[in-house]
């Protein structure tokens, strides 16, 4: 059983034990988790974070160059 | 060609080799394969962001050494800045909690902000060895932009 599946099972148990308002939120969370491959968010987040890091470095270099060559 | 310009070309070459020759590590904890359209777009965007950063390093290096005039440097940096901003925004959309279906129209709108590529024709028209690094970097950017557009269209 993968960690993601285990987490879902734990959440289902909590749903069974909890009252209605909290149960509704947990059901929504579970529905959202089931709708996506558990590995997908990690890959996309990692790639997007790296993209932002690279783009941020590019923008910082441009700003530094302009500051150094301001006429 | 003076010593400063030769040095700039050497620095440029080392940047190109450094950014293209090394395998890029992504901070994912486990090995993964890129299969879904969302993953493919995230990967294409990562290539674009890396290419932009590389191109900016090359441009500023050539600008500082005097191979490029301040006006030429500024022109290239303007183009690269637009692509860096685009890549940053695309990554923010992909990272957001919105569903893929919700992200698609946002991405389609963002793609319309990609600047025209007239700059590439301008520099590739210059058959000068001193611009070789910049031309290579901008051609790399063009390819990266095309990959992103193809992924968006799919």
Describe, in plain words, how this protein is organized in 3D:
The complex is a heterodimer of chains A (71) and B (154). Chain A is mainly α. Chain A contains three helices and no strands. Chain A has helices at 3-17, 20-35, 40-68. In chain A, helix 1 (3-17) packs antiparallel against helix 2. The radius of gyration of chain A is 22 Å and the shape is rod-shaped. Chain A starts with a helix and ends with a helix. The relative contact order of chain A is 0.08. With 154 residues, chain B is mainly α. Chain B contains six helices and no strands. In chain B, helix 1 (3-21) runs antiparallel to helix 2 and helix 1 (3-21) packs parallel to helix 6 (132-153). The longest helix of chain B has 29 residues, at 37-65. Chain B starts with a helix and ends with a helix. The model of chain B is unreliable at 6-12 and 14-30 (pLDDT under 50). Chain A binds chain B through residues 35, 37, 39-40, 42-59, 61-62, 65-66, 69, 71, and chain B through 26-30, 32, 34, 36, 38-39, 42-43, 45-46, 48-50, 52-53, 55-57, 60, 63-64, 70, 73-74, 77, 80-81, 84-85, 87-88, 90-92, 94-95, 99.
Shape verdict of chain A: rod-shaped
Question: How many beta-strand segments of chain A?
Answer: 0
Classify the beta-strand content of chain A into a percent band.
under 5%
Q: Note the run of SSEs of chain B as H and E.
A: HHHHHH
Shape of chain B: elongated
Rg of chain B, rounded, reads 17 Å
Pattern of helices and strands of chain A: HHH
Derived structural class of chain A: mainly alpha
Features:
heterodimer; B: 154 residues; mainly alpha; 75% helix; elongated
């Amino acid at each position: 059983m993968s960690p993601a599946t285990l987490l879902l099972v734990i959440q289902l148990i909590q749903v069974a034990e909890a009252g209605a308002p909290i149960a509704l939120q947990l059901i929504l969370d579970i529905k959202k988790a089931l709708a996506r491959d558990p590995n997908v968010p990690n890959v996309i987040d990692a790639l997007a974070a790296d993209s932002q890091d690279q783009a941020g470095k590019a923008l910082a270099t441009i700003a530094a160059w302009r500051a150094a060559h301001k006429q | 060609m003076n010593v400063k310009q030769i040095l700039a070309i050497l620095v440029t070459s080392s940047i190109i080799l450094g950014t293209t020759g090394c395998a890029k590590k992504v901070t994912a904890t486990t090995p993964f394969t890129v299969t879904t359209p969302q993953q493919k777009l995230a990967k294409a965007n990562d290539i674009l962001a890396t290419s932009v950063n590389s191109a900016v390093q090359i441009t500023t290096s050539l600008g500082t050494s005097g191979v490029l005039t301040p006006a030429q440097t500024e022109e290239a940096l303007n183009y690269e800045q637009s692509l860096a901003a685009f890549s940053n925004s695309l990554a923010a959309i992909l990272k957001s909690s919105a569903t893929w279906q919700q992200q698609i129209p946002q991405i389609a709108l963002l793609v319309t902000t990609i600047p025209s590529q007239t700059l590439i024709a301008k520099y590739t028209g210059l058959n000068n060895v001193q611009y070789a690094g910049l031309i290579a970097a901008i051609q790399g950017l063009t390819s990266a932009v095309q990959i992103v557009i193809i992924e968006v269209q799919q």
